[in-house]
Design goal:
The protein is built from four helices and five strands, in the order H-E-E-E-E-E-H-H-H. By secondary structure, the chain is α+β, with helices and mostly antiparallel strands. The strands form two sheets. A three-stranded mixed β-sheet has the order 1-5-2. A two-stranded antiparallel ribbon has the order 3-4. The chain is elongated.
Amino acid sequence: MLRCGFAHDGMFRSGIYFSTMREEAMLITWPKKNGQFVSDGRLESAIINPRGFVRCIELHFNAYLRELRAPGENDAQIRFRTAVELKWRLGEPGPSVGMTEAQFRGEA
């Protein structure tokens, strides 16, 4: 609910809030029954501290870049290369079609 609404819809659903009142990047509330955590329950709310959230993203991104730039070959580099090859179809001919301006205008 949180990730899909935030990342794909560009909007939040009920129970998702922004607040700078707490230090945590994100505070999640989950249902309890008789004071016990309900593991199969649904997320009740998520409170996002925008500054803390961005700070966490920057820390994660910088750590990921260090891993990708590390000498030698590691799992992160292999997974990144695989994703790039799948997404950008490296080594395959591109979908572009070459033509002159006259051909484009239908004059040739």
